[in-house]
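Deliverable D4.2, example record:
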Amino acid sequence: MTARLAAIWRHPIKGHGAEALEAVTLKAGQTMPWDRTWAVAHEAAKTDGQDWAPCANFSRGAKAPKLMAIKARLDEARETVTLTHPDRPDLTFSPDREGAVFLDWVAPLMPADRAASARVVRVPGRGMTDSPFPSVSILGMSSLRALSDAAGRDLSPLRFRGNFWVEGTAPFEEFDWIGRRLRLGEAELEVRERIGRCKATMANPDTGSVDTDTLGVLQDQWGHTDLGVYAEVVAPGRVALTDTLELL
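Output generated by the structure prediction step:
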């Protein structure tokens, strides 16, 4: 297998936009730096925001598809995030200090029949990934192309909110890596589990409108609703675009 890294994405605020990167330095046992650093708890959340909590506690595209059209850009030095959306003015704010400003900005994007966004939370020491362990996600571009072909439309990687997209593997080959270690750039990772997908993937990331039954296509064609895998960083290192992926 000869696979190379095609894209790197981080999501500073869980469920609220993605940002492309050229390189990142991973640390053992941690999530990608600045990925899901913040999350938006809704008014029915059963978490105090001090520890990891399941995704059902947070505002996200599965329940509010318009959120999928948000783009994000993080200023690491200032710890501010700039958000853009086709239906909203651009917003630059500090998630730690200006949560109220953000809540006013995002309110028009939330469905009236869903729990409203209530507060921005930040868990000390880790990103609020969907997995209960600190993880990064790895997805295959060939898997996405296979799903696009079956769906009859070109599906953006942004529907799947992944960290690392690799080119050069067979469709869904990443499922065979579970329990194995791999080297990505200078880092080593252990693949832990498949990623089960939700309704967020049904929304177009350009418009925030639901336009494709991705879950139905996956189920009908492959008998599951999974795409990509979660991995744990076991040895630190820098990872950059075009780096190779090697199974160990």
